[in-house]
Amino acid sequence: MAEGGEGLAAVPEHERILQEIESTDTACVGPTLRSVYDDQPNAHQKFMEKLDACIRNHDKEIEKMCNFHHQGFVDAITELLKVRTDAEKLKVQVTDTNSKLQDAGKEVIAQTEDIIRCRIQQRNITTVVEKLQCCLPVLEMYSKLKEQMNAKRYYSALKTMEQLENIYFPRVSQYRFCQIMIENLPKLREEIKEISMSDLKDFLESIRKHSNKIGETAMKQAQQQKIFNVALQKQNNTNMGRNMYVTNGRIPEERNEVTSTYAFEEEDENEEEVLTVQDLVDFSPVYRCLHIYSVLGDEETFENYYRKQRKKQARLVLQPQPSMHETVDGYRRYFTQIVGFFVVEDHILHVTQGLVTRAYTDELWNMALSKIIAVLRAHSSYCTDPDLVLELKNLIVVFADTLQGYGFPVNRLFDLLFEIRDQYSETLLKKWAGVFREIFEEDNCSPIPVANEEEYKIIISKFPFQDPDLEKHSFPKKFPMSQSVPHIYIQVKEFIYASLKFSESLHRSSTEIDDMLRKSTNLLLTRTLSSCLQNLIKKPHIGLTELVQIIINTTHLEQACKYLEDFITNITNISQETVHTTRLYGLSTFKDARHSAEGEIYTKLNQKIDEFIQLADYDWTMSEPDGRASGYLMDLINFLRSTFQVFTHLPGKVAQTACMSACQHLSTSLMQMLLDNELKQISMGAVQQFNLDVIQCELFASSEPVPGFQGDTLQLAFIDLRQLLDLFMVWDWSTYLADYGQPASKYLRVNPNTALTLLEKMKDTNKKNNIFAQFRKNDRDKQKLIETVVRQLRSLVNGMSQHT
């Protein structure tokens, strides 16, 4: 029962499995079949039995179905067989129709193929035309590029390259010829860079060669412009009034007229076509090169190369020739090259963008300016010719004005001109030293004679001399000064003109120019002329007459200094009331020269007196005098008398001082002759003879050889000799000894030492020649008095030495 119950339970399960197998996709039958084997034992057998029963059921159903539809199937087969016959007929008809159609369509097919072939050709042609139309502009542009290269239109060629690369090549980049063109473009660019750089090098070499001409033209134009401006200003001043430049002499007006005439003549001669830097130099290479490098994107390389090369050229231009200082042409060539260099740079600055900047030109100019100043300072120091220095100054002024017109600062150049001005003054002083020496050498040191009114006016026109007394004299007459005075006065004025030439065009005020002229003139007077006068005065063979004439000349030159001051004031148009006006030092110069001449006169007189004294030949042992003065002394007095007559034109004090100095020196010399240590003995006769000579000296002094002495002032020069000789001639020792030291003493000027020295010389003579023998015989007391006098004199001398 149990097994029967399990069998009943398995049947529904097997049916379920069969239903699943029938309804499930064969790919999923596996799990279902596995459940069959996973069930109870003998389940497989039961399932197979159930499966066979299910199959038999299905076969029965199929058989029933077939039996039900068999007659219809038979009918359909019968009808199909009937249709088969008709189908074969239809097939034959269709085959025949197809054959006919194929025969008829062969011609159509042939024509159709022709049409297709033509359409393909047409399409190909159209495609080729389109491609050619796309390629032709590229080829045309490339051909144009080649033409531009051949025509050396490199900037246009670069633009064409840009168009090819940006516009045309992208359209035909698939073609091989385009790749070839693309590969050629960098080569063409390099070729253009090399060619343009070669053109730039040629340009740089060209402007180096043309710098001289460019600078010369620029300086010439600047000078012409300046001349025109000066002439225009003078014309305006003339229209406003001719009192703008007033002088009381004729020379400034004449010089102005000459200068103005020369300026206009030069302007007329230079009325040519105005050339510019573009007319002298072709700048197209640098423009092309700049544009080419700009297009190539390598502008910085070009700028650096250009600036580097130009700096090298600047160094070459700034290097002077060793012999530049010898001629003005050397300086001119130096300046024109520099001007040409910077004119080109200024032009490049204004016509290009960035190739040359203002900062670059300023840096280059500052470097050049320092070099220029150093070169000029060094080379100008070798110049010894003032005319060359003046021409150098004019060149520097034109050079500075030219570059200033192009915007370059030139203040340092004008500062340099002040240094060169000092050197110019030194060369002028040396030149005028030679001029003054020639004047003094040619001067005859005698008053200027004039025979008529015409000669008198000629001298007056050269030198401002005023003497109403001389004007009253009839002809012929003489000026007190010698010929050198007007010549020196004229040369001083010429020196002032020469100094003024340098001061022109220095952009300085009239006050500064006036001050410079006065300082230069002061140097001329105090150093050059003073030195020449001192050398003239110190000449070993110059005579008293010449010295007297020098004193007279310096007096008149001193008086003329105020006229020189007025002359400077007139040519500079500076008011005399200007507070800071420098005064001329000529007064002190001529005073010093006069004092030196006066001292030389005193020295010459003393030397002449010494020469006469050396001729003295006294017999110091004579017993009796000759009864007349010595010959040498009379000759000396006659010489002094004639000499002092020449002193009539000298200032009174000079003549009086010379006369007093001569008398004092004569007195001193005579005193030294008595007291000479080599003179061992003197007789009373010699003293008496010496007294006669001193009397002649006193007579000369009392004759007033030079007017102006009061009373017996001149005779006081011999007072020492007179009192000494009176003491010995009178033998008044008691009075001398008693009154010694008293202000009212009769022998106040007799020194005890002097008296003792002379007395001992007379004492020695007494011992050897028994000159005092009569005293020993007649009066021994007198001998004792002599001894007493000697002892007292020695006592006085000792007392003086102890007191000292």
From TrEMBL:
Domain Exocyst complex component EXOC6/Sec15 N-terminal: 50-219
Gene Ontology cellular component terms for the protein in this record: exocyst; plasma membrane
GO biological process: Golgi to plasma membrane transport; intracellular protein transport; vesicle tethering involved in exocytosis
Domain of life, source organism: Eukaryota
InterPro entries: EXOC6/Sec15, EXOC6/Sec15_C, EXOC6/Sec15_C_dom1, EXOC6_Sec15_N, EXOC6PINT-1/Sec15/Tip20_C_dom2
Residue ranges occupied by any Exocyst complex subunit EXOC6/Sec15 C-terminal domain in the UniProt entry: 413-761
Pfam families per the UniProt record, alphabetical: EXOC6_Sec15_N, Sec15_C
Keywords per UniProt: Exocytosis, Transport
Coiled coil: none
Family as reported in the entry's similarity comment: Belongs to the SEC15 family.
Function: Component of the exocyst complex involved in the docking of exocytic vesicles with fusion sites on the plasma membrane.
Name of the protein this chain belongs to: Exocyst complex component
Designated gene of the protein: EXOC6
